[in-house]
Structure formats: C-alpha cells, structure tokens
Amino acid sequence: MSIDRRDFLKMIGASAVFALGGMGVVDGIVKDNVEAEQFRPEPGALLAKQWAMVIDMRKFKTEGDYKRIISACNNIHNIPDFSDSKHEVKWIWTDTFEHAFPEQEQGYAPESLKEMPIPLLCNHCENPPCVRVCPTKATFKRKDGLVMQDMHRCIGCRFCMAACPYGSRSFNWTDPRPHIKKENPDYPTRMRGVVEKCTFCVERLAEGKMPACVEASNGAMMFGDLSDPNSEIRKVLESNYTIRRKSELGTGPNIYYIIGGADNAREGAKRE
Amino acid sequence: MYNGGKILLGIFVFLALATYPFYNNIGKANARPEPSTDTPAIQKLAQKKCIEPEAFMKSEHMQLLNQWRDAAVRDGNRIYVAGDGQRYDISLQNTCMKCHSNKKEFCDSCHNYAGVSPYCWDCHLAPKEGK
Ligand code: SF4
Ligand code: SF4
Ligand code: SF4
Questions:
Q1: Could you tell me the distance, in angstroms and rounded to a whole number, from the CA of residue A92 to the centre of ligand 3?
Q2: Pairing of strands B87-89, B79-81
Q3: Per-residue buried b or exposed e for A163-191, using 16+ beta carbons within 10 Å of the residue's own CB
Q4: Interface residue A39 vs chain B (CB under 8 A)
Q5: Which of 3.10.450.50, 3.30.1490.20, 3.30.70.20, 1.10.3720.10 is the CATH number of A39-268?
Q6: Are the beta carbons of A183 and B55 separated by less than 8 Å?
Q7: Whose C-alpha lies nearest to ligand 3, atom 6?
Q8: Inter-residue contact A10 to A16 (CB < 8 Å)
C-alpha cells in the first residue's frame, strides 16, 4: 500500500489526537498541515499551446555556427560522445539538405544547396508517431506540444525509433556515462537500454529560459508559441517562405526552415 | 529402518546448515543504520529540518519522490509546496542532494541495511564525494 503525504499526516494527526485525548490538538494539526495545491509550475515558466522553432539557414555562415549550437546542447544535457557511429547518441545534429529534405526534388539545384548542412532535431510533431507506438506511454505529448519522454518508464523497446521518420531518437547500447566528456552536475545522464532525444529544453523553459541551442545561435534559431498570433515566431513564419521535413507524412513537424535564396545556396557548400 | 543412522545424520547436517544463520546471529545486535545529516549545506541551515517532518521522510520518501517525478515529468509542475507552505524545486539532483551531499553516509547507509538498491543513480548524478 502506498500512502501520500496527506494520508500520512492524517494518520499521524489521528493518532496524536487519540493519544492526547483532547480535541484542542485537532485545530493545531489541521491548521499546520492545510494542503494548498501541492504541485505547481515555476512562477517564471514559459508557457505555450504549441512550441515550435524556426531555423534560419541564411544565418548559418561558418562551421562554428553549427558547432556552437550542437555543443551547447551536448554540454548541458550530458550527451555521450561515442567514437563508434553505431552507438551514436544525438539530440541535435546535421545532415545535408538532400538527405534532410528528400521530397524537395529540385532537379537542377546547385550542388552547394544539396550539400548544405542542415541542423536537425526532434520535430516535436503535432501528431507524433513515436507517441502512438510507445507501449508504456513513456513517450507522450504534453499540453504545451512538447513530445516528452519519461526516462523512468522507458523499457528500451525502440518502437519509437522505428516509428520516427526523422531519425530523431537514439538508443543507449551501453552505459553512456564513461563517454560523457564533462558531466553537467545539474542534469541527469541516461542509462544503458533507454532511448533519448531532444526535449526542447523542457527544464530551461520551466525556468523561463529559451532552449540552449536557440540561445547559442545568435538569432539564427527562433522559438515560440505557434498558437499565439502575436508571437515572434508567427511573424517570422508570416513574412518568410519556410519548409518542414516530410510534412507530407502527416506528422505535423514543428521545426520550420528558412532556406534562403540562391546566394545562400551558393555559399552553402563552403560551410562545414 | 535401512541406513537409519545415515538418514538421521543427513537430517541433522541439513538442519544444522539451514539454521546456521540464525544461530550465528543470536545475541548479536545488528547495528541500526545511522544516516548522517552532517553536511556543510545542512550545517548552514538555521533550522535543521527537511522539507517535511522527519518521520514522514523516513517512511515515505520513496512515495514522495514518485509523486515528484510524475509532477515534474508528466505535468510540468516543478514546484512542491511543503506542508509548512515552503516551496521547493522538484529535483532529486538539485534539491535533495544539494543538502544531502553525502550519499554514502546518508542514502546508502539505510539502503544497504535494508538490502535495496534503488536505480535512481543509474541516471541521476550523485554528488561528488571525497572518498
Ligand atoms: S520527430 Fe520523431 S521523435 Fe520527435 S516527435 Fe516527431 S516522431 Fe517523435
Ligand atoms: S523505447 Fe522507450 S520511449 Fe521508445 S517506444 Fe519503447 S518504451 Fe517507449
Ligand atoms: S531544444 Fe534543447 S534539447 Fe533540443 S536540440 Fe536544442 S538544446 Fe538540445
């Protein structure tokens, strides 16, 4: 039998009343332990109905621009660095335009566009297939649109990895701890046998901070509430042509990309 | 009775072995675990008390941690309002262990005694300890 604090206090209270045999104590006990709401959000937390991100490829000019956002995430979230690519664990990474957007078949697009590295991360899909297949409800969608994973509940079945069309999820084949370069003592690690992915920095949103990659991007990445017509992100989406990854699958990805014009494409190949 | 002596001897040996742990421990009081709360952070507290009464924490901390986990991970509620109205960040690593920075003398002393090995530490980082 498990009892919560309320029951426990009641029990203690009842036995105290019993032992002392006086009604005077009842007042004291009840007053001292009035239950307000026991759990609540942090006062400064950032709230939304559907979080989303815009990545402006025009602002990724050098290799450093990519490295900065990726290592910001890796360092904060204790992402292990496996030299064996079969064991790779990644929350944010890059792949070429051609691989990231296979449906964009611009036959005669310049090589530089095809080869342009694109930052990729979990799309926190509106209709996430990973959530649908998770047998333990370890992966679930929060009220603010984040696709979260409860590590305590993940059994490592990897159904979600098979279901995700974006390769956003990684499996811990071995204990990741020895492969973490420098542990961030404020954030947990993962253990062998669980799946992990980008969390949209849920722990930072709770403290009123922007995601780490967005903060490190010098304005190349924007983050905000898609359901708020006055949000910065909605303004950016209204004034730019953006694409999403494999949206034809019906997953409703929430990462929008501004690819930019020919100039940008021509420059693309020089990066990385 | 065939081989009566051998059978009796066998039974005797079996009983002796099976009850050995009990005989062996007779009269030896098992030392109660004494979880230490002597850490720099706790020493600094004006009032040396945990977030809830000690008796509750002793017997129910695992349930409380489960509730914390669900509140933070599932509902995004990361503030816990204690019985006395005080508010605390819901975090094993950043709230509990900031005071109880001596996992070996605190958590482990009872857990080892009770023969339980909770898997908190497979993911949550324990505070760095000298020893
Ligand atoms: S990108 Fe993949 S892991 Fe992320 S929500 Fe969509 S399906 Fe799930
Ligand atoms: S690996 Fe974990 S998160 Fe993924 S489907 Fe299985 S239980 Fe769910
Ligand atoms: S949003 Fe946070 S968790 Fe996701 S890739 Fe960016 S830094 Fe990493």
A1: 7
A2: antiparallel
A3: bbebebbbbbeeebbebbeeeeeebbbbb
A4: yes
A5: 3.30.70.20
A6: no
A7: A213
A8: no
Q: How many angstroms separate the CA atoms of A196 and A98, rounded?
A: 25
Q: Which residue has the tokens 């494409």?
A: A265
Q: Does A188 touch chain B (CB under 8 A)?
A: yes
Rounded to an integer, what distance in angstroms lies between the CA atom of residue A53 and that of residue A222? 5
pTM: 0.83
Chain A residues 82-121 within an 8 A CB cutoff of chain B:
none
How far does residue B69's CA lie from ligand 2's centre (Å)?
18
Instruction: Confirm whether the ipTM is greater than 0.95.
Output: no
Q: Residue A223 is encoded by which pair of tokens?
A: 């983050």
pLDDT in tens, B94-104: 999 999 999 99
**Which stretch of DSSP H or E encloses residue B17?**
helix B4-25
Residue B116 in 3-state DSSP?
coil
- Domain assignments of chain B as residue spans, ordered by start: 37-116
